[in-house]
């Protein structure tokens, strides 16, 4: 017997279903457009297996990550928060491999315990391997309270723009149903994950240097938002934009690009990171923008916990974050104005207030 649960239907983005059976649960996601499908497929197929294989990355493990049980929680996963405008060019993306079967593919690469998939280790439906022996015991701190996991890619279909993923347990962190220690530990774990993602080897073969691309984005969005900003706001944002030189010589790295608690599930001893449909190469600080604008402004302790796992930002990284935060605010406001969206207008105004606080 199969039980189908609709998790999301959005006419502009994707339809997401959870399918439960006696053998286990999977998530089926059908994208509406090729670009987010290709981006999410690339993340699950090319990037995340690199984290799974990172035997020299103990910072991704929890205190007993090798044999952690998988706690099943409410099935509200795979529901991203409101989406913002797309503000840059798509990177070079590779489609699915056509070897052996051109349209249906299963996951490839070993499932190591350092960053495990969210599926059950012994599920006959998913056919995942046995876990490796437990990691050596060590004293856990704020960096090590939670394991980090991601869904496993089970199959992909180019013609229907569909993905089959293992179902992740837990509740989205933004719901505010978790106690303070758990929330702090989740942010520390998210910081560890993000640093490891950004350190994956990737070729930045975009012909436009990052510093030039950021400058072009700034000019375009500032022009679109000019009439909805006051002269004082425009002046302050231009001062932030002047820090764009911090992007000189910086290469693009693998980024999630929608990295917020909306896309994290907390289940027992593990944090599950979801929804890679916006993932592509970008400046590493792009993954901090929404956290800085929407989450940390209300609770600075969360920023401290995140950076305890991620590592502190040097002066240049902080300058790049300032520039991207201003860009995020302006782009969100301009998009909200064009689409008459009051929710995005409120998001843009909050982001703008945070950005303006960073002007010196």
UniProtKB/TrEMBL annotation:
Residues 146-315 form the Aminoglycoside phosphotransferase domain. Residues 55-139 are annotated as: Disordered. Residues 75-91 have a biased composition (Polar residues). The lineage of its organism: Bacteria, Pseudomonadati, Myxococcota, Polyangia, Nannocystales. It comes from Nannocystis bainbridge. InterPro entries: Aminoglycoside_PTrfase (IPR002575), Kinase-like_dom_sf (IPR011009). This is Aminoglycoside phosphotransferase domain-containing protein.
């Amino acid at each position: 017997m199969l039980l189908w649960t609709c998790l999301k239907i959005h006419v502009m983005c994707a339809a997401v279903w959870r399918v439960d059976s006696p053998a286990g649960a999977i998530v089926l996601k059908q994208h509406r457009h090729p670009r987010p499908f290709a981006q999410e497929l690339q993340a699950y197929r090319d990037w995340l297996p690199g984290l799974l294989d990172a035997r020299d990355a103990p910072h991704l493990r929890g205190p007993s990550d090798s044999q952690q049980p998988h706690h099943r929680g409410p099935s509200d996963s795979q529901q991203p928060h409101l989406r913002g405008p797309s503000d840059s060019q798509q990177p070079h993306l590779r489609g699915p491999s056509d070897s052996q079967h051109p349209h249906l593919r299963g996951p490839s690469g070993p499932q190591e315990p350092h960053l495990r998939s969210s599926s059950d280790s012994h599920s006959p439906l998913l056919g995942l391997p046995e876990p490796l022996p437990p990691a050596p015991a060590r004293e856990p701190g704020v960096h090590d309270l939670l394991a980090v996991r991601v869904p496993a890619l089970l199959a992909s279909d180019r013609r229907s723009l569909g993905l089959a993923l293992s179902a992740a347990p837990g509740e989205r962190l933004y719901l505010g149903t978790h106690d303070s220690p758990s929330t702090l530990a989740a942010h520390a774990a998210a910081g560890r994950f993000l640093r490891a993602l950004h350190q994956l080897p990737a070729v930045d073969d975009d012909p436009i240097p990052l510093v030039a691309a950021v400058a072009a984005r700034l000019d375009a969005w500032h022009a679109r938002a000019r009439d909805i900003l006051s002269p004082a706001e425009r002046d302050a944002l231009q001062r932030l934009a002047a820090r764009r030189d911090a992007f000189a010589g910086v290469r693009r790295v693998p980024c999630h690009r929608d990295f917020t608690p909306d896309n994290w599930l907390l289940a027992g001893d593990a944090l599950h990171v979801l929804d890679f449909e916006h993932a592509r190469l970008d400046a590493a600080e792009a993954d901090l923008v929404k956290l800085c604008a929407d989450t940390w402004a209300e609770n600075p302790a969360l920023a401290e916990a995140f950076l305890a796992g991620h590592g502190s930002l040097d002066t240049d990284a902080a300058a790049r974050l300032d520039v991207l935060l201003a860009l995020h605010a302006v782009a969100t406001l301009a998009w909200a104005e064009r689409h008459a969206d009051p929710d995005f207008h409120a998001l843009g105004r909050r982001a703008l207030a945070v950005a303006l606080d960073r002007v010196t």
